[in-house]
Sequence to fold (559 residues):
Amino acid sequence: STSFTTLFPHKSKLYSKSSPFLFNPTTIELPNSHFLKPCNISMAHNIISSQGSQLKCSAIGDDLDIHTEKPIFDPHSIKPNLIQKMSYDALVWSSLHGLLVGDRASEKSGKVPGVGLVHAPVSLLPMLFPESNWKQACEVAPIFNELVDRVSLDGKFLQESLSRTKKVDGFTSRLLDIHAKMLDINKKEEIRLGLHRSDYMLDEQTNLLLQIELNTISSSFPGLSGLVSELHRSLLHQYKQNLALDPARIPENKAVDQFAEALSKAWTEYNNPSAVVMVVVQTEERNMYDQHWLFTLLKERYPFSSIEFLFKLHDNTFQVRSIRKTLAEIDEQGELLPDGTLVVDGEAVAVVYFRAGYAPTDYPSESEWRARLLMEQSCAVKCPSIAYHLAGTKKIQQELAKPNVLERFLENKDDIAKVRKCFAGLWSLDDSTIVKDAIERPGYYVMKPQREGGGNNIYGDDVKLALQRMEKEGMEEDAAYILMQRIFPTISPAILMREGSSHKDHVISELGVYATYLRNNTRVVMNDHCGYLMRTKVSSSNEGGVAAGFAVLDSIYLV
Fold:
């Protein structure tokens, strides 16, 4: 497919303030007012922004020549010997503080803790990010939480919106079948827990913060992302004479703390002090340490039962205990008691936290689907419930971007405006005008299936080929996809570290803002943003998943 840099539009061309694409007086009537039909333009290669989004020091490693007017920091100007020292210290820090993943080269690294460890792929220094856009992403997070909750309660909307997708996407069809069964038995989720992450890119030409997706299942890296922020603060402190950057400009990142607090409060709301929190995991998980950080915090910071329980063990303490189970193990060891209690391996389950179950590969047999249905039928708190899971699909994201749909779920006009401002162009493939334009100019679109985890999207000329094939075959396969406006963020210099080595590259970044939501019937217990994940990838890479091997973990430096 066409590389990112060959698709990057030259920023000196005219563009409309209401459009993330270049100005063209011939517009298409589209659901999002800030997306207009792009004109044909010449492309520029490896453009690096000069609009003040980078800090500048001369000959870093020698005496500093700081430019106070629009300061720019270029990591590529750091002397090689200083990069070597910082890289060594970063590797030591990561090893001592648990910024680790399983090594793909080690056969047991995804199954046995402590075997085959390697530092997580990281950027050596934080990425600059506008403070105003950071505040915007934090402000809108609780609104997205509430939106997900309200969408989840509208079973008719979910079923109807995904009805065409159901016919051609077997995975989504199975999820919808479980959801339909819950509707048929009038299953109510009184306690609803959401641990979400909304991902954004900052469009360079318009400076609009545009949403890539909203993750409602298995929002990964709350543990490791906070460690990267700490690593970068440590390096800025240690090398402050060389870098002259303020560690305080890296915002606090407490995602893992608030995720643990949310799980603890959900466990408390369930009101059974002997029940456990069950983590649903994959059979092999090289990102297990991100998960273990969360549940170590849950155990150590919430050792006592809620005061309402007035419950103590013989040692006068009570821990929120957790167990890890695969879907197959849940099917084998699980049972549903007459009162709706889920019991797995002899343990009553208060909260089910999914770090698996989001991809078709997680369901290799009927055993895994039986486990998913069993959990949904239970009275355990699910994170996410099947309705929350479906509310996070790409098709629902596209449906919510249609005119007047947000008004179905949100009343506050200011909240609606804030959410809508984040929407990129999103369309169904039954829109012939958009499909025609995407075939003519595929570089301006991304085709997205209803999948999570990275590596699934279609870019560049492959968009054109896929659309032409679907038109020729005349099948309904197009219902499995949506079209999304391709966002062109600033390309910046960075130093990336992977497997003990560092190298310079030009990169783009994606900001994910975590949020926690807990509701018990009409009472909202928690609703707030709680930290972030910055992922940075080389500008020539389309995909951005860290676990999938496309990107590195990063932090942000507010400017």
Notes: The mean pLDDT is 84. The first strand starts at residue 100 and ends at 102.
